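Exercise 7. Given the components listed, write out the predicted structure of the assembled complex. Treat all entries as one system.
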Amino acid sequence: MILFALRRFLGFAATLLLAAVVIFYLLDLLPGDPARFTSGITATPEAVANLRAQMGLDAPAHERLLGWIAGMLRGDFGMSYTQRAPVAALLWERLAVTLPLTVMAMIISVVIGLPLGIVSARARGKAPDTAIMVLAQLGVAVPNFWFGMMLTLVFAVALRWLPPGGFTPRGENPWLSLRGLVLPSPALALPQASILARVMRTALVDVQGQDFIRTARAKGLTMGEAVWRHGVRNALLPVLTILGLQFAFLIAGTIIVENVFYLPGLGRLIFTAISERDLILVRGATVVLIVAVTATMFVVDLAYALVDPRLRERSTP
Amino acid sequence: MRWSIRACGSAARHEFFKRHPNLVIGLVATMLFALLGLISLVWTPYPIAQIDIGRRFLGPMAAHWLGTDNLGRDMASLVMSGTLTSFVVAALAVAIGAGIGVPLGLAAAAWGRPVEWLVLRFSDFLFAFPAIIVAILVTALFGPGAINAVLAIGLFNIPVFARVAQGSALSIATLDFVATGRLAGLGPAAIAYRHLLPNIMSLIIVQGTIQLSLGILAEAGLSYVGLGTQPPATSLGLMLRDAQSMFLIHPPADAGAGAVHRADRDWSQYCRGWIARRHRSAAAAGECQCRCLRSKGSSCASAAPRRSAM
Amino acid sequence: MRFGSAEAVSDVSFTLERGERFGIIGESGSGKTLTALAVTGLLPEGAVVGGSISIDGVPLPANEREMARLRGKRIGMVFQEPMTALNPLMRVTDQIEEAIILNRSDSAQLDVPYLLKEVGLEPRHGERFPHQLSGGQRQRVMIAMALASQPDILIADEPTSALDLITQKRVLDLIAEICMRRRMALLFISHDLKAVGVLCSRVAVMHRGRLVETGPAASVFSAPQQDYTRRLVAASRFDITREDHPLGGAPLLAVEQVVREYRQGGLWPWREKPLRAVDGVSFAIGEGECVALVGPSGCGKTTLAKIIVGLDSATSGQMQLGGVAYHGADLPQEMRRDISLVFQDPFGSFNPRLTIAQSLGEPLRLEAKLDLVERQRRLVEAIEAVGLRSEMLARYPHEFSGGQRQRLAIARALVTRPKLVVLDEPVSALDVSVRGEVLALLARLQAEFGLTYLIISHDIDMVRAVADRVLVMEAGRIVEEGRPETIFAEPQHRLTRELMAARLPDVA
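Answer.
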């Protein structure tokens, strides 16, 4: 098991490293000189050259790459030249919005999706199944940002129960800042919950036909008991995989949904950075996103191995 | 203990379309929207770029079936043209994903070990980049545009198709007819083309419809945040973006574009569900047959399905 | 009983006395498994059942929970598939424990160690997950679970057909012994007349969903009343099918010190001792000879076959075919047409998307300069040689039965007019009634085309009927060799003796 975890971790680290390299060189190809951009149109060539040296831009690309990676390992992501602040601090501030939103959406989608999937699988072909699957169909079909707009229209514009957008930083009033997430997180969670319900249903229906369920019933369990005791855990394997991928989708979704609700999250930071051609900031933000996605997949892999003894085995002879 | 089993009534096979009314509805709806999109190539009620501030925010009427937007553009024309853009972007992205991903997956299955390792690591790596991140990078490089959306979504589709192709081809590659093919002197490429590809085609098509529907959504998302289609061209996502900026004043504009969206996706979803179900039952039946007939203790521990869907 | 519009089982009636051992015999698709599932209320969804089933005169309850509890208490079940019948995520102990807890009764309580011991497993096996056990061990776990509730009836559905000969014998003995000791009634379901003959005192024969014949085992087997039963009994014996053919020709294939090692994974692969699947095997096959390679599952016989036909390569050692040396996959292209292979599983050996003509014609790529007419002639020749009609060439594989597909597989093997045909378990996946036909076909083809056979099998009786010479293989080595009459009459090696002892006696 330890060996398995170690191997997975190596893979995880390698993916990150490679991703960092790719991002660095992609953005390095970019036309435009950050030093000139920062110092303004009126700056003299000498001043620009000075700034270049100061920003370390005159060093060869691979040296700057190494410096950047080494910096990130220490938690130093460089300075944003438009915001004139450390990138790490900017990212941290924004993550305080994006992460809670993502996690809340994840929890909501699991809490709604899995039980619905189980109910649906148990009632296969009957009315509850049809109803849930129609709902799930709609849920996947609706773009999350459109659903977010509808929520705003109903609860913020028409009913005026909740703020239509914006976010109060946590330090001031935790209750208020949570209020800001009440509309965005279900908007994000809806399509994911629908997908989870479908996957859970399919997996459980598959498992119900397996021989070991028949064995469990032969022991004296009813179908329902057999599915509950033996089926659900086996059906969770494919669900777990999807759950890992969903986190990636959720993060992507967050970036979009933040725009609907005017939340000062990572997504809005990135868009500002792009429009201002603040490449150091874009670079840092993409790396953080990729770390989040890959780390989730790494955790899912470990969880998978914890649930499934066959997997642990394969890499430890 | 005494018992017997006796025959009871029979269930006749119904006609295919009668059994799947939803399929018909979805099919018709999709055809309709595809047709609308295609017509927009040659004809729209009004040119979509025609701005007429004097006629803004009109409700549905004879001259403008769906009314006009904040710039006085005809909504019906925008919907037609936007549908086409959404379809085309998603379809091109599927073509990129399948065109690169499927050969990669097949190569992994046909050549084995080292190639397999490479392809799997490569797709793992691409999985780390959600479409939005790719779009961000591409936009940072080249500026926003519909091409970026195609590229970003297409890139994201590659590992999805590679995984599906590799996983399903692997289960085919262990079958005896592949071994007879190798005995007959077929190389890996010929094996992949002749024996593997035809047998995984149905799964690829299913995945294609899933990715098409996801692609329409993703394009909408990208255009909505300004990374995709740019004015004066339009797409459903872009219309939602325009709509949101003023939906406090004029809600119908928003609901309309969303509804169009939903119908497109419904059909794809339905289609995918249906094909997947058929495929599964056929596969299950085949497996049962083999299992019953296999009288030797074959000790292949079945690998748990991993990351095949989505 | 019906599924949709297809009637699966109809009008089946029988009684099972307390402590009686009753067998149901039938080929695949005869409805025997469905019958067993009906008894226990485990039928798949969509099955419509008519008629009644009762235990001790009381009809089975309609309520699902009551039925489940009754099933747990009174009936123990062992299924065919030891691979998939256990929950892969749960330790064996927990799975047995569950059966005990579910069926608590006032009488003496069993515990897991006792049950493990009763089925011949050690306590340490209980700590394992199902995938860490062999097929035979898993089947023992199944039996332990079935015994946990101290049932009155044990239903065993093909419990041994996925096991090799020696394991099969052990499991059958175990079932017999436990039924005797506990005075349990046994409902034993199998396609294998010999296994039923060993275990059961009364038998029923099923065919196409109906009971054809019922009676005491001895009389059904020795004096079958129905045609179908007669055919089954006849087919269960392998008659000597060898036709006269010249022996002792020049050596065609020589295998010299072939070794195949598999590197095991691990963090430091070079530190692990490689697994030797084939360990220094040497033998020769003369032209026109029929040599059989027998051994238990996992002994390396299939690996060896793959190396010989060129699907795999030897780690060291070499083969010579007609004087040309090769190591496996490096078999020269122009020699490949001289060797062909027939697989065990007739369902996996044809690409469902190709017509029979396309599949059969595939090996003809190996022969350059074959025009369309000649090519078509060869296909027709091959398909007619195996007793099928040439118009079948245009059909697809799913249109054929298992026996027909095996004939087609043989036709494909013959289409290049090879010298050596390697047959991997050629009949073990087929129904009993068609095995004889396929073996007879093989014998006829051998005489007709002067073929040389290498047959890979674990079935001693089949080998005895067809082979000129037998090689016995264990753990990658050949441990005994000789003519079938002598080797089976006076087995020298321990394994050969075990194999002989595990043979089930012929019925009647």
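Discussion: DSSP finds ten helices and one strand in chain B. Confidence is low (pLDDT under 50) at residues 1-14, 248-310 of chain B.
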